[in-house]
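fyi for ur records
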Amino acid sequence: MSFNPAQPAPPPAPAIQLPADWRDFVALTKPRVMSLVVFTGLCGLLAAPGHIHPVLGFAAILCIALGAGGAAALNQWWEADIDALMKRTAKRPLPTGRMARTDARDFGIALSCASVGIMGLAIHWLAAIVLAISIVYYAVVYTIWLKPRTPQNIVIGGGAGAFPPLIGWIAVTGEITAMPVLLFAIIFLWTPPHFWALALFVRTDYANAGIPMLPVVAGQAATRRQILIYSLVLLPVTLAPWAIGGAGAIYGISALTLSALFVALSLPVAFRRSGEGDAMRPEKRLFGYSVLYLFVLFGALVADRLVLA
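which gave:
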């Protein structure tokens, strides 16, 4: 499905190019998003069977963080004009003119190349290859190709954020098996309801920027139904690691409880309609819980591994 909005008016260019400082470069890496990336990558590493030297384990997580930061910088380099049109992104370094776009591009490329190179030399090249794929997936497949063209951008692009636990697991084991693929699948299916809950209460931002997010193109009703559908599908997938023996009861009970609550919070979102001045409390509640959900779920996976070790 394609979407061809009218070209939005370009934002006014800042009169003066302000000098960037270290905080602007940190902002390019999207630290709040990176915290979840690093955490799930670390959980994949800690939950994997086998052992890795702590120094090498730290190096692997550092590479995941550098790769995520590089991809985020490239995302902001490409979307600087779009970010200037959206309230929640207008104060980023590029829209405000605190940094030259070429600096953001070069910074993103440097971080991305360093992360892959260090991962290959310090850990092994299978982990490095998967890391490189994740960077290209986010910076090119999602940012350049999917996001401006189709309302399925989050569905397909969800794979970009699903790589960290897979990479962490591979760093320890050196192979791709069913368990890390299931961890990938959990985040892949979690991403649409998480992001669409956000998109519902920032819909105007996306509409003004000409981005074909599902609430803009298909409307609220379709988006709300999709949130519930993905939440229902997510539940059995989160239980799959327990079912195949890759995780124990601590994880299994946690996954069942957390995912059932995810579905319960999705229900009021699915069966309501918002009007003018709506505070969107159910949607904001689901979005906030979805972040906590992933932290606790992957934390339970690690706790389960430590108890069984």
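Residues 281-308 form the longest helix (28 residues). thats all i got for now
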